[in-house]
Amino acid sequence: MHVDADEEYVQSVYIKPPEAHQIIMEPLPKRLLDNIKERLRVEWLMNTTIRDVIFHMFYVSVVITMVHGHRNIYSSFLCTEAVRSLFVKPSIGMKMGKVSNTDDFEKYLHSTFIPAMTDITSDHDYATRGSNHYLVGTYRLRQLRIKTDVCAPIMYGLPHDCKGPYSVTEEETRYFDQSWSKPLTGVDGTSVDDKSDHWKYRSTWDLKTLPFPGTHGTYSGGGYVLQLPAKVSSHSDILSGLFADKWIDQYTRAIFIEFTLYNPNVDLFTVVVYLFEFTNVGRVFPINYEFTSSLYHYSTDYQMVVLVCEILFICFTCLFIYVEVKRFKQLGKVKYFSDFWSYVEISQLSLSVSLLGLFIKRFFTINNTLAELKQAQDNGYINFHSAIFWDFVFGYVSAVLVALVTLKTLKHVRYNKRIKIVTKTLSNIRPVYIGYVFGFAVMTTSFASLGYSFFGYSMDGYKTFYDSWVSIILVLLGVGDFVGLQDMFRYAGPMFIVAIVMICQYILMVMMTTVLNFGRLEAKHELSKRKRKMALIKYMRSRVKLLLDMK
Questions:
Q1: Long-range contacts of 512-516 (CB under 8 A, 24+ apart)
Q2: What is the average pLDDT value for the chain, to the nearest integer?
Q3: What secondary structure does DSSP assign to 320-343, as a single string?
Q4: CA 288/CA 279 separation, integer angstroms
Q5: pTM assigned to the model
Q6: Which of 335, 400, 348, 549 lies closest to 67, judged by CA?
Q7: CATH no. for 424-546
Q8: Distance CA 97, CA 80 (A)
Q9: Where are the domains of the chain?
C-alpha cells in the first residue's frame, strides 16, 4: 500500500511525544537566575574595565613618549646651570646679582660678560667653562627709554624735571643723531637706512621680538639696538665708547642683553635674555632668563619612534572626538554635563587640539629660524625668541595634558573602594568646601592687604600685594620670614605672624579637617549599603588568581 505525498510530509514533521521515562528540567529559581545575571554583568563590566585600562595606559604611554621624546630635561638643566656659571654666578668677576647702578652695570660688562664671551668664542687646546658652547651669530644690547617731561610739577618752587617709570605709552620712539639731545625731525622708520645705528628706534615688528615681562613692568619688543660685531676683541672698546657717549642715561628704563648659545655635545640651544631694569628711583634690578631646548627634531632613531607616537596621538584625538560626540548625542545635554568626567574629557580634547595647532606653529617657526641661521652664516644676530617661545608654550601645554591624562586614570579605577570613598567624600563636602574656600580667600586677602600696607615700605616680601599674599601662604606653610619681620618690626612683626597662625591655620585648618572627616564618614556609610556594586575588584582578583593557578 502506498501513501501519497501529503501523508509522507506529515509523517516527516511529526514529533513523537516524550516517553514516560524522559526527564524534564524544572525552571531555575529566580534567586539563582538573579545571581547568574549579576555575575554576567560583573564579568562584562570587568572585561570592559580591563579593556579601557589597557587602552588608556597605551594612550598615556604614547602621550608621555611624544611629550618627552624631544626634551632632555636633565641635560637642559645642566646646560642652563653651565651658562649661569659663566654670566650670572661666575667664579671670577662680578656676579650679576651685585649690579645695582649704572657703574656696576659697566663693571659687570667688562669684568664678567666680555671675558665669558671671549672664552666661548676662542679656540682652546684645553677644556674651559665656555669651550662646550658655541655662540650662534652675535649678541646685541637693546635699550628702552621713556620720553622727557612726561609728568607735571608736583609743587611750585621744587624741581619739576621728573622721570617717570616705564610705560609702553610713554616709550621713546624718536630717532637721534649720535646723541639723545639731537632728535631727528621728519624721520620715520622707512627713511632710516642704517639699521645698525643704535641711536635710531626699531619697532617690535622690525626686530621680530615679543614683549617681555620684568619685575617693574612689561617691556615692548622694540628699542634702540646695538648689535656687536663678530670680533669679540673689539667689544670692550665699543662698550666703553657707549658709556662715554652717555647712551645710557637717566631716561633709560631697560637694557636687554640677548644672544643664543648652542651646545653640540647635547644638541641643545640656550636662548639667553639678561634684563637690567633701570628704575626712576635710581636702582638697577638685574634679571636672568635662560631657555634651553632642542630645536633639531627627527635626527635620531629614537626621535623617529617619537614621530610614530605623534601620528598615533593624532589618531587617538580623532577617535576621542568621535566617541565624545556620540556619547553626547546618546546621553543628552543635561545628563552629559552632569558627569564630572565629561568636563575632564572636554578639557583633554581641547588641550589635544591646541597641541596639534601649536605643533604646526612651532614646526614652521623653528624651520624659518634655522633657515635664517644658514643664510646669515654667523654674520649677525639671529633672533630665536619666537622659536623658543612657541617651543616652550608647546611644552607647557603638553605638561598640562600629561597631568590631565594621568589624572584620568582615576576614572578607570573608580570601582576601587578607597578611591570611591575619596571621590564620594569630595562630592559630599562640595557645597561646604566652596564656602570654606571663599572664607579662606577673604581671610588671606585681608592679611595680605595688612602686610602690604604695613610692611611694604621696607620688606621685600611685601613690596607688592601679590608678594604680600605669597608671603602669607608661606607663613601658613611654615616657611615665613619670621626673623626678618622681627628685626624690622620688633613688636608688630611677631604679632602679625601669631595672628595669621591662630586665625588662618588653627581655626580654618581645623575647620577644614572636621568637614573632611564628616564627609568621609558619610561616604563610608553610603557605600556600605552598596557592597554588591563594589565587588568588581574582588572578582577581578579571583579571576587573576584562577588564571595564574594561585590559591
A1: 512/436, 515/429, 515/432, 515/433, 515/436, 516/425, 516/429
A2: 82
A3: HHHHHHHHHHHH-HHHHHTSHHHH
A4: 17
A5: 0.78
A6: 400
A7: 1.10.287
A8: 17
A9: 73-293, 299-412, 424-546
